[in-house]
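Exercise: predict the fold of this chain.
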Amino acid sequence: MSVTNLNPEYQAVVDDWLLVNDCVNGERKVKSKKQRYLPKPNAGDKSRENEDRYTSYMARAQFVNFTARTKRALVGSVFRKKPMSSYLMRLNICEKTQAEAELSWTI
């Protein structure tokens, strides 16, 4: 697979990733994408009046960033407790047995 070819699994979810990233980045990012997230109510009308209405419509639109708040809360909850790992426990046991082995050589 060359660099220009994208994995089908990636292609299936890339739009979702971009949506979440835009939401986490906030209202300015979402509004900068204009019609991707806030489509024109009267898209067929190409008049200047309709463009002005859409601009004021977008200016009045509110975006409450629950996505970034949720992300911060979840990241915080991950680090709330010290990690427990069987690897660390095994390492501790190895250190004890090594100390015991060194002790037996000195006796």
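Check your answer against the key: The chain has one domain: 8-106.
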